[in-house]
Amino acid sequence: MRELDPTRTAVVGVHWQHEVVSPDGVFGPFFAEQVARHRVASYAAQVATAMRTAGGLVVLTRVAHRPGYPDLIANTPSFAMVRERQAFLEGAPKARIVDELAPEAGDVVITHVRLGGFFGSELDTVLRGRGVQTVLFTGVATNLSVMNTVFEAVNHGYRPVVVSDACTAATDDTHRASLETLGQLGDVVSTAEVVDRLSR
């Protein structure tokens, strides 16, 4: 991995919400066990802390819908389930970001309503406003929202770096296969490598 200039680097934490990573969340049955078993949130928190300490930007993306879901197009089974289960409602406890990744002063929270963090949001504006060129990614799920947001980052001209142990999917095999694909677009590194580079 090339050196990381904190003034030109941000970390984007994708969907660290109770609805996604907690056992009682709408998608918890798919991801919560993997998140807990691999201590993924802990690794993501280490990356965020290292980025703040180095003076870089921490961004957290979250899904949140208005009551009645006027902003939801249920064109996939997952989106339909969100409406059926009344999930991701703005202000609801399960729509909150988990405590381990809770935003701190200076962090930016991006709210969106589709699969990736760039679509229909101000994420690109925020990153460009800070002069960001390299984006580190953590989050859930590697093969879905993380991958989609990485693809969008590439299309917007950013250099992507995926933190392998700070992401997960529903199965280890799915996670590994996703990392192989993402490795064709940019660096795939560990939390330890990121912390080491940012601390230099």
Can you walk me through this structure?
This protein has a six-stranded parallel sheet, sandwiched between helices. It is an alpha/beta fold. α3 runs parallel beside α8 (191-198) and α6 packs parallel to α7 (172-182). The longest helix is centred in the N-terminal third of the chain and has 15 residues, at 40-54. β2, α4 (77-84) and β3 form a beta-alpha-beta unit. The chain has a single domain, classed as Rossmann fold. The protein contains eight helices and six strands, in the order βαααβαβαβαβαβα.
Largest sheet: 6 strands, parallel
Q: What is the level 1 CATH name? A: Alpha Beta
Please provide the count of β strands.
6
- Total of DSSP H or I helical runs spanning 4+ residues: 8
Span of the ends, CA to CA: 14 Å
Principal-axes geometry comes out as globular
What's the structural domain tally?
1
**CATH-level-2 architecture:** 3-Layer(aba) Sandwich
What fraction, in percent, of the residue positions are helical? 25-40%
Give unreliable regions as ranges.
Answer: none
Q: Beta-sheet strand percentage?
A: 15-25%
